[in-house]
Each structure stands twice: as structure tokens, then as C-alpha cells.
Specification:
The protein is α/β, with parallel strands linked by helices. The chain is built from 22 helices and 18 strands. The strands form four sheets. A six-stranded parallel sheet has the order 9-8-7-10-11-12. Strands 14-13-15-16-18-17 form a six-stranded parallel sheet, sandwiched between helices. Strand 17, helix 20 and strand 18 form a beta-alpha-beta unit. The longest helix is centred in the middle third of the chain and has 19 residues. The N and C termini lie far apart (about 70 Å).
């Protein structure tokens, strides 16, 4: 039997390490669906929305090195875009197959026609439209190679008639190549870097996701320098542990005072594997050094004085012998003491909260951290649930945490948990979902049910868009159209065949979480958290304080005095951190 392009596509994906495809079949994608069925080595995950499929594939790529999703014709393409934007910005190698109308109908504004080469240009490292079987074969190999080498999304546009056409001989390779080069600065650059560090007393390390495979080397450097060690949200799960004597916390919108102050009192800030997006939180009066595998990132967000190209593990291995030990611990001790004050403050918010009626979201995150496995995988939505994850989830022996940290989209946590749960069914997967986020892709709870993905979906049900509410108040606006009327998530879960628990008072939180975590299959834990629990960044400007006061006065003029009193009482605790 002759082999068609769809058969070749399946064989190539399997050889590249793809385990499953996230897609909704139909129309031009049917030849690929048939090839997957006949081959039998790839799992087809029938998602309810292609955006969820793209997020799940992105998570699989982040954990395992490659992921795959597909979308048929125009609407399927457009649905993929948001999840692919996130994957590309997170540098996750995702292969997206955009099947489309037959070649004789292209360019005629046909029903369900889009132009993949234009549509996906801004959310991919590579996009190619195949118009012949030869182009499809060449383009697929090239797409995968781009995704795994440039770390991002590669899209292959594939008309239905090309997918079902017989393959033709081509000159490109029939496999892909996972290269792992050691990338490091030159000897001259390493000498310069060592001199900068050796001739300055107060050195602060700021570590991102690029330190994922270099935790041991980072800790050795911190020990040799007696330096405070801060981290980005995406890097915190590798370093924020009780036995880390150098940790000083996060900086940025979700950061704390100690992480912010350490940077601003440093002589040298050494940014390791982080493309930190919040420039306004970075210092301007110290020497900033940035090391990254992608030199195009150097200096684009901070006033970097010295930039070097290298992977963190290899670079630190070469750098460490050149570093002179620093014995003075005064600066470290000062920043660690400040960090402990912050931690004590956070701890005070969750002490004895089980006796209170209103459920504080901080308490929920605290209990999750205590109950979760040491190798749990956490996914977090963008919004207030991310704040509580940032402040209360700590590193374990092999914990992992991720979210839409670069793209900042809502609704990412649940579909990311799908990808994590399918990739690692024996590890605990916990999603921190806002009620706004879970509502956006609610249908894919049925995907979790259908495939019995053992994800634990925690819904921080505060009946409002909490982060937007805070943004509006700080900006001086009266929050409007931020309230949410939600379905009964427990009944909804039960109708979908998912076990569910609920907590409406603080005394119910631990039991609901414990039951959900112990359950063997998927579980939803719906927790009615206090809608007025808002959190401030580690530093605020006078204009933001003025804006908050203005929004409160507007509320008063609109007859909401009781809400002002309630909100102010709850927000004042966060202002004490500043």
C-alpha cells in the first residue's frame, strides 16, 4: 500500500518524540486523523476548543521537550492562536499543523479559508504553507527542527488534498536532531565577569527559568559570594525553599519588599536566565550583568552594563573557579532578616484562619502548599490566584510551577494541567484557577473527564475579576463590570463525571482539598474565597495611592460606603508590607 503525506507526518512526529496530538478533527484534518488511527502510536486527545489544545501541547513541550496540536481550516486556526502565542513566548517547542482548504480553492476567499503563513507569523518561529507533497515533507522536517532548536512554535499549513496525496522523494532528512551544545562566554568575557564580581562587595543573584538545570551551580555561586538570591515567578519553584539560606524572594508585580530591596541596595545585580519583563522594578544605580542563551535578549528590559551569551549551567561551571570567596555576611544577613519579616507577615495572614467564616485565599494557598506532594506540578491562572501561588507555594524535592508568565492570558491553568496530567499521570497535578479563567474554557473540563486526566482543579471562586478590580481601583477608576455570576461548579462537575468538593467557610477548606487530592481521578475543589482580598506590589507610587483614594471616593459618592470600609480593612494589611 502506498504511503501518503499524512502517514509520513505521523511517522515523523513519532520519530521526533511527540506522544499525543491535541485537536478537533474534521474537514481538511480528516486524512491526518485517519493516519493517526491506522498507525496507533500517537494518542489523539479530542479537546473541546483548540486554544485548550495549544495550551496543553505547550505544557507537554515545557515538561518533555516537544508538543503537538492541530486545527482544521480557518476557525480552528484562529482558535489555536492564543495558546500558540503563549507557547512561543514561553519558548516551548510546539508543532502546530494548520490543515486548510484544498489547493485549488486557495486565494479565492473560500469558505473557512485563512492564510496560515500570515495568521501565525507573529506567534511562531517558523510558518510554512505546503502546496505540494514535496513541500509538505520538507516543510515538516524544517518546522520541527526550528521548534526544537529555536525553542518556540513552528506551524505547517497543510491543505487537505496534500495530506492525502502520495509522498514523493525529497532530499531533506527523514529525522530531526536534538542538539545540546554547551554555550558560554569567551575566556576574555569570563575574566571580565569574574573581575566585576570580585571587585564589588554587595552582589545579588536574580534567577529565572533559565536556571532550571543549573540549580546546584547557582547555589554554589551564592554560597561563595554570600549573596542574596532573588528570583522571578517562573524561577521561584527552584529556589524558594526553607533550607535555602540565601533566598530573599520575588521581585516584580507579584514580588515582595525583600526581593525588591536586595536589588536596589546591591553594587552588582547578576541576572541569570531571566528576561524579566517589569523594568520599573529593576535598579538603575548599580552595575547590571545579564547572562542568557539568546543574546538578542540582553539589555532589552534593563539598563544592562555587561551582557554575556551562555547557558547558565555551563557558564557558572567555568566561572566558579575564577570567583573569590566573600566572607562578609552583613548584606546577606540584612536582606535575609527583611525576607523573614515578609515571610512572617505572610504567615500571620494564615494563622488560625480555619476558625473564620470568610475564606482568605492566602489560607487556601497555604494549605495547598502543606498538603501537596513534594513533586507536584502546579499550573496557575493569570490573576489573583497567581498572587497567592507566588506568595505561598514553595519548592519541594522536585516541584514544578508554571503559568502564562510571558503572555499573561487568562484561562491557561486548566488546559496546562491537561498536558501535565497526560504527560505525568503518576505525579500530582494541581491547577490554581480563577473563576474568570475556568469559565473561559469551561467545555474542556469534559476533555479532562473523557480521558480521566488526574488533574486537581482548584477554583478560587471570588465572584469577581479580582486583578482587574485592583487595577481599576489603583488607577482611580470605580470598578464596574468586574463582578461574575457563576454556575454551581460542583453540580457542573458532577454532570461531567468529575468528582467535586466545595468549601464555603474556612473550616471546610482543608477537608475539601484533602479529599480532592486523595481522589484517584480528576477532581474539582470549588472554594468560595473573599472577593475583597486584594494584594499590592512590593512598591507603589504616590499616583497609585492617590488613584486608590480617588476610586474609594467615587464608591462613596455612589452609595457604597459599606464596601469601602470592608475593602479598606482588608487591604490595609498588604500596605503594611511596603
Amino acid at each position: 500500500m502506498s504511503k501518503n503525506v499524512a502517514d509520513h507526518l505521523v511517522e515523523t512526529l513519532v520519530a521526533a518524540g511527540v506522544k499525543r496530538i491535541y485537536a478537533i478533527t474534521g474537514d481538511s484534518l480528516n486524512p491526518v486523523n485517519d493516519a493517526v488511527r491506522r498507525d496507533g502510536r500517537l494518542q489523539w486527545i479530542h479537546v473541546r476548543h483548540e486554544e485548550a489544545g495549544a495550551y496543553a501541547a505547550s505544557m507537554e513541550a515545557e515538561l518533555n521537550g516537544i508538543g503537538c496540536c492541530m486545527g482544521s481550516s480557518g476557525p480552528g486556526h484562529v482558535h489555536l492562536v492564543n495558546g500558540l502565542y503563549d507557547a512561543n513566548r514561553a519558548e516551548n517547542p510546539v508543532i502546530a499543523i494548520a490543515s486548510t482548504v484544498h489547493t485549488d480553492k486557495l486565494g479565492l476567499d473560500n469558505f473557512q479559508e485563512t492564510r496560515p503563513e500570515a495568521l501565525f507569523q507573529d506567534c511562531s518561529k517558523y510558518v510554512f504553507m505546503a502546496n505540494t507533497p514535496e513541500q509538505a515533507q520538507n516543510g515538516l522536517q524544517t518546522a520541527i527542527q526550528h521548534a526544537i532548536s529555536q525553542k518556540g512554535v513552528a506551524v505547517l499549513g497543510l491543505p487537505g488534498d496534500i495530506a492525502s496525496a502520495e509522498i514523493e522523494p525529497v532530499h531533506s532528512a527523514n529525522k530531526n536532531f536534538y542538539t545540546q551544545p554547551r554555550v558560554m562566554p569567551s575566556k576574555e568575557d569570563l575574566d571580565e565577569l569574574a573581575k566585576l564580581i570580585n571587585t564589588n562587595e554587595k552582589v545579588v543573584l536574580f534567577c529565572g527559568h533559565g536556571c532550571r538545570h543549573a540549580v546546584e551551580e547557582v547555589m554554589q555561586l551564592a554560597k561563595k559570594l554570600n549573596s542574596p538570591l532573588g528570583y522571578s515567578f517562573r524561577g521561584k519553584i527552584f529556589f524558594e525553599r526553607a533550607d535555602n539560606p540565601y533566598a530573599v524572594g520575588l521581585n516584580g508585580l507579584l514580588g515582595n519588599k525583600s526581593g525588591f530591596e536586595a536589588m536596589h541596595q546591591a553594587d552588582v545585580l547578576l541576572m541569570l536566565g531571566t528576561d524579566f519583563p517589569y523594568s520599573e522594578f529593576l535598579p538603575e544605580k548599580c552595575n547590571i550583568i545579564q547572562i542568557d542563551t539568546k543574546p538578542e535578549k540582553l539589555g532589552r528590559r534593563a539598563k544592562v552594563d555587561y551582557g554575556y551569551c551562555g547557558d547558565i549551567k555551563s557558564t557558572l561551571q567555568e566561572l566558579l573557579p575564577l570567583i573569590e570567596e566573600k566572607n562578609d555576611t552583613e548584606f546577606l544577613d540584612k536582606m535575609r532578616a527583611l525576607h523573614q519579616e515578609v515571610e512572617d507577615t505572610y504567615e500571620s495572614y494564615v494563622e488560625d484562619k480555619s476558625k473564620e467564616k470568610n475564606i482568605h485565599p492566602e489560607y487556601v494557598a497555604h494549605v495547598v502548599d502543606r498538603l501537596a506532594d513534594d513533586d507536584a506540578i502546579f499550573t496557575v491562572d493569570t490573576g489573583m490566584s497567581a498572587v497567592w501561588a507566588a506568595r505561598y507555594l514553595k519548592a519541594g524535592k522536585n516541584r514544578y510551577l508554571t503559568g502564562s508568565f510571558n503572555h499573561g492570558s487568562m484561562a491557561n491553568a486548566m488546559p496546562m494541567a491537561m498536558g501535565a496530567g497526560l504527560s505525568y499521570p503518576d505525579r500530582q497535578v494541581i491547577a490554581f484557577c480563577g473563576d474568570g479563567g475556568i469559565s473561559m474554557l469551561l467545555g474542556d473540563l469534559m476533555t479532562i473527564s473523557q480521558y480521566q486526566i488526574p488533574a486537581k482543579i482548584i477554583i478560587f471562586n471570588n465572584r469577581t475579576l479580582g486583578m482587574v478590580k485592583l487595577e481599576m481601583r489603583v488607577g482611580g477608576y470605580m470598578d464596574w463590570q468586574t463582578d461574575m455570576v457563576n454556575p454551581d461548579f460542583v453540580k457542573l462537575a458532577e454532570s461531567m463525571g468529575i468528582a467535586a468538593w466545595e468549601a464555603k467557610e474556612s473550616k471546610d477548606v482543608e477537608l475539601a482539598l484533602s479529599n480532592g487530592f486523595k481522589h484517584k481521578g480528576p477532581a474539582i475543589i470549588n472554594i468560595f474565597t473573599d472577593p475583597d482580598a486584594l494584594a499590592m506590589p512590593p512598591t507603589i507610587t504616590f499616583d497609585q495611592v492617590k488613584g486608590f483614594a480617588k476610586s474609594m471616593s467615587r464608591l462613596m459618592m455612589n452609595g457604597k460606603f459599606a464596601e469601602i470600609v470592608d475593602t479598606t480593612k482588608k487591604d490595609i494589611k498588604y500596605l503594611r508590607e511596603l
